[in-house]
């Protein structure tokens, strides 16, 4: 047993050292998207590519395989989902996947991702899909090659989905999203037929950027984001990046004439950041100190952004401060009108600014398109037309430009094919978790109205953050809530909030 423990320590030390290199790469990626001069892009791609090759060498080191072979099915794995068992199980799964990927492919894909993101920023700004098409075509081809190298039992998409939502299967996710869609479409129709509309002019008034930054940081800190172990910066597409156990970077983007853009993206990324800050620090770099899945990660960002951040109770606490910071914009606006406006339901073009009821329809469109791109049923050159057709059919609106259409998201430029469905899984998980939190904690609305968010955060830390990767995402949520993945709580939540606003039945 002592020899096994020594082997386990050697394994953990190796992986922790690799994690430091991954953190350095993450920091270079953050710098590229926040601070890098335009002409520094090509060399940054070379730097990140070099690191990717070194990291891949370490992830596929034969000694790693020897250690994992010795530890698998040993007494150290006898307690299911313990920190030790989860570490061995998850590292072995990752190792078996990584050894199937040629170093050449890893490096080429890493370089393409960096160039892809840099090309996307310029192409979107110039509404020029043609400039983006060649690198996207390469990224799709490399994604396809990655899926084939790893292999899959069911659908080709499974191989990529597993990077983001371990053990999930495409057919299962498709069924969940179709069920959700069947419930959302009637709700959106009822809202449209109600004839009620908030005064959205309120949101489009002059909101000075300095005051937006002030209220965003204040709200993020109040709900629990630790600015002594993190920071907030500006970028083209908001994201969260972790470079160490006490170094979590979140970003946002500001619009002086649209209040929700920066405020809710800040809350969203703060939710991601609070998950990172709540992970088990003693296991940092190892599975028990790593997020369970991107679906669970997204549950945390959407929970704080929407279920908490768009609630009447939340603004009962924050609205007086908002009126002080934006006297010209909000001085004559009752809180009920403001609350209605931030919960507007209306089909829109931009996913990150979509309301809660239509948001998942955006995800379903992307899920369908990226499967078609990966399989080859849809050619990259035909993406703008296919995108516009789906938006016309499923949302009733047609993007006037590619910048507001297929160029709006950074994900495909970053090679993140397989990522999008985790957003909807996160929405479903968030509602399930919040229902359970209400049952366990009592009057959360009263706490929010009093500016008390720590009770909920503590509950999330204990039940969601601290377990890390000891369980797959869906199992973690099922263990906490007592039920498998179920979109019913999300629909109940939406109807309970939107029903009174739009005069429809709960």
Set down the secondary structure blueprint:
Elements: H1 2-34, H2 41-59, H3 62-71, H4 83-98, H5 103-125, H6 129-150, H7 156-164, H8 170-194, H9 209-223, E1 230-234, E2 240-244, E3 247-252, H10 259-278, H11 294-308, H12 312-325, H13 327-330, H14 335-342, H15 356-375, H16 383-394, H17 421-441, H18 444-449, H19 454-465, H20 473-481, H21 488-502
Parallel strand pairs: 1-3
Antiparallel strand pairs: 2-3
Helix pairs in contact: 1-2, 1-3, 2-5, 3-4, 5-6, 6-7, 8-15, 8-21, 9-10, 9-12, 10-11, 11-17, 15-16, 15-17, 17-20, 17-21
Explained architecture:
- This protein has 506 residues and is mainly alpha-helical.
- It has 2 domains: 2-151, no CATH class; 170-502, Neurolysin, domain 3.
- Helices cover 65% and strands 3% of the residues.
- It contains 21 helices and 3 strands.
- It has helices at 2-34, 41-59, 62-71, 83-98, 103-125, 129-150, 156-164, 170-194, 209-223, 259-278, 294-308, 312-325, 327-330, 335-342, 356-375, 383-394, 421-441, 444-449, 454-465, 473-481, 488-502, and strands at 230-234, 240-244, 247-252.
- A 3-stranded mixed β-sheet has the order 1-3-2.
- A hairpin with a 2-residue loop joins strand 2 and strand 3.
- Helix 11 (294-308) packs across helix 17 (421-441).
- It starts with a helix and ends with a helix.
């Amino acid at each position: 047993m002592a020899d096994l423990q020594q082997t386990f320590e050697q394994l953990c030390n190796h992986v922790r050292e690799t994690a430091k290199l991954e953190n350095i790469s993450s920091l270079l990626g953050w710098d590229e998207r926040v601070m890098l001069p335009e002409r520094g892009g090509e060399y940054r791609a070379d730097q990140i590519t070099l690191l990717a090759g070194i990291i891949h060498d370490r992830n596929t080191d034969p000694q790693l395989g020897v250690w994992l072979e010795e530890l698998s099915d040993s007494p150290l794995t006898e307690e299911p989902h313990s920190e030790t068992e989860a570490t061995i199980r998850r590292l072995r799964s990752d190792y078996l996947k990584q050894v199937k990927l040629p170093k050449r492919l890893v490096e080429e894909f890493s370089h393409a991702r960096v160039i892809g993101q840099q090309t996307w920023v310029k192409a979107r700004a110039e509404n020029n899909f043609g400039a983006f098409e060649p690198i996207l075509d390469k990224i799709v081809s490399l994604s396809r090659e990655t899926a084939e190298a790893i292999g899959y039992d069911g659908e080709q998409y499974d191989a990529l989905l597993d990077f983001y939502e371990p053990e999930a299967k495409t057919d299962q996710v498709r069924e969940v999203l179709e069920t959700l869609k069947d419930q959302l479409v009637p709700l959106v129709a009822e809202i449209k037929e109600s004839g009620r509309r908030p005064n959205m002019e309120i949101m489009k008034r002059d909101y000075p950027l300095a005051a937006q930054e002030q209220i965003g940081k204040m709200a993020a800190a109040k709900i629990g984001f630790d600015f002594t172990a993190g920071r907030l910066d500006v970028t083209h597409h908001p994201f969260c990046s972790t470079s160490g156990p006490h170094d979590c970077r979140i970003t946002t983007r500001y619009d002086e004439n649209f209040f929700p853009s920066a405020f809710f993206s800040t809350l969203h990324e703060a939710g991601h950041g609070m998950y990172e800050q709540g992970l088990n620090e003693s296991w940092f770099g190892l599975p028990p100190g790593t997020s369970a899945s991107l679906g669970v990660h997204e549950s945390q960002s959407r929970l704080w952004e929407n279920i908490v951040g768009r609630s009447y109770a939340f603004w009962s606490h924050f609205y007086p401060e908002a009126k002080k910071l934006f006297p010209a914009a909000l001085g004559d606006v009752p809180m009920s009108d403001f609350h209605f406006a931030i919960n507007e339901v209306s089909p829109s073009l931009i996913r990150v600014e979509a309301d809660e009821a239509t948001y998942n329809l955006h995800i379903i469109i992307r899920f369908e398109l990226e499967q078609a791109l990966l399989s080859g049923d849809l050619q990259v050159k035909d993406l703008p037309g296919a995108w516009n057709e789906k938006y016309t059919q499923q949302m009733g609106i047609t993007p006037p430009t590619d910048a507001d259409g297929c160029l709006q998201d950074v994900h495909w430029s970053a090679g993140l094919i397989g990522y999008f469905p985790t957003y909807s899984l996160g929405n479903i998980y968030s509602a399930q978790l919040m229902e359970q939190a209400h049952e366990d904690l009592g009057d959360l609305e009263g706490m929010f109205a009093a500016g008390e968010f720590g009770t909920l955060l503590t509950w999330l830390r204990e039940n969601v953050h601290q377990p890390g990767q000891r369980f797959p995402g869906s199992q973690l949520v099922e263990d906490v809530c007592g039920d498998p993945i179920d979109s019913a709580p999300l629909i109940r939540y939406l109807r309970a909030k939107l029903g009174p606003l739009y005069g429809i039945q709960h």
